[in-house]
Amino acid sequence: MHSFRYRDGKLHCEDVDLARVAEKFGTPLYVYSAGTILDHYTRLDAALALLDHVICYAVKANSNRAILKLLAHAGAGFDIVSGGELYRVIAAGGDPARCTFAGVGKSREEIEFALEQGVYSFNVESEVELESIDRIASAKNLRAPIALRANPDVDPHTHEYVSTGSRENKFGIALDELPAVYERAAKMLNIEIVGVQMHIGSQITEAEPFASAIKKVAPIVRKLKSKYGIKFFSIGGGMGIIYLRALESGSGKWWHDHGPACAGSAFSIRDYAEAIVPPLRELGIRILVEPGRFLVGNAGVLLTRVHYIKQTAEKKFAIVDAGMNDLIRPALYQSYHEIVPCRASAAADAKRTQEIDIVGPVCESGDFFALDREMPEVHEGDLLAIMSAGAYGFMMASNYNSRPFPAEALVHGDKVSLIRERQTWEDLVRGEIESL
Length: 436
Ligand code: LLP
Prior knowledge:
The protein has 436 residues and is an alpha/beta fold. The chain contains 14 helices and 21 strands. A hairpin with a 2-residue loop joins strand 20 and strand 21.
């Protein structure tokens, strides 16, 4: 479900007209739907109802405090990968005791902070990291709760940059090495074994890789439960989304009749639950899931305005005011994002389509949002919505080309609030030191 719909030809987020939001806060602008995020959370929660489970939202997908607060209120725990993310969760009113701390390269400072705050578990990715956590905990006279990250060596059939669960990846510990590392952990005085974790990749659009990873790790979970009394099995995140287009109601019907096929597959929360719940239930242990994209991906859009239409002998370009520095996913992963006009043209006009590249102002040919995309005619000054930009959008933004970070807004029902101010040029140089 998502809450981006045309009403009388005007693209709305819940009950708010997006063109008005753009007028109010300027562009480029990320806009998120609180209702969509909560709907996704509730549906996942319901799908896992037969399990003793905790949904630990993967903060890296979108860490704006307003979103963390929303999810904390809904009952979520958090999957964090840095001291900064833990700091944010606490600042948003989240409970450190519901946080799992993942990542292959935790620093001493981060480990100390997480120990002081009392995180639920450190998800440990190597024996050297385990030793380091033991030493740091010993210096503090504390015991660190840990889960080892298992690398089940399954192919999640996703983009190679976001595939993490096979042997060549830097992540986790191979299944045949895992028992020995647990034995070492059991001998460490400042380590408490509390669980086992895995995460095989992101934007996975079929249930099968999840099921086969669970099948491979389940016998180990059973042994760890009887040997060390572990409390949980975290199966990671990675549920893929369909990179959706805005839905029609009334005019702007063009998108239904002629829109390009949605990227992604028909993977649904039901398929996911049917594949994973029965085998997990048999384990009789608390299950943690770490979804990021599933909760927030289709809950956000990036609004951008067309600066110029440039026609060359070869091609037509719409040059928009957002760039790869604002949303890098198309450039980095060749990912598909639906792009729709915020004002659907009158039916006759809308039927005139064109092939166009939607590009940003950054000085790189990789600065594009769509190539040779068939769209209704786009004009200078038009406001466009780049769909499904709620996850790994703002989070991966940079100041490249000295472009300030965009603003972010959150819609709930008929209300919209600014949840991050747009950076200014002064912000860009703040903290820089000119002289030697
Ligand atoms: N747990 C762990 C240990 C992870 O590394 C990740 C994501 C997640 C959970 C959440 O995965 P999700 O449910 O969101 O798929 N920037 C890329 C995605 C990178 C994902 C990194 N790890 C993108 O824009 O597609």
